[in-house]
Amino acid sequence: MTQTDWVEYQNLFEEVYPDFFPSLLASYPDLSQAEIRYLCLEKLQLTNNEMALVLGVSANTVRVTKHRIRKKLNIESQQEMEKLIQSLEKS
């Protein structure tokens, strides 16, 4: 995903989930742009393989990155991560 693609995607994402980014950044202000991208795709409930296709990386890279994000946010399981992401904005 190029920077231009990301900006386009982010604009469309914000139309559907207008409070997601503000809620996410208010709760976790230290997230990098790359981590935010992963969490946006997580919000859409994409599989690791689907995320890998969108981001142009391997499924293993997605798995490792998601693990690092969970560790950074002090979240123990993928299920907890999914609940957190889905709770940031219901739509």
UniProtKB/TrEMBL annotation:
Keywords: DNA-binding. Residues 28-85 form the HTH luxR-type domain. One of its GO terms (molecular function) is DNA binding. The keyword Acetylation does not apply. GO terms for biological process: regulation of DNA-templated transcription. It holds the Pfam family GerE. It comes from the Bacteria. InterPro entries: Sig_transdc_resp-reg_C-effctor, Tscrpt_reg_LuxR_C, WH-like_DNA-bd_sf. This is DNA-binding transcriptional regulator, CsgD family. It comes from Aequorivita viscosa.
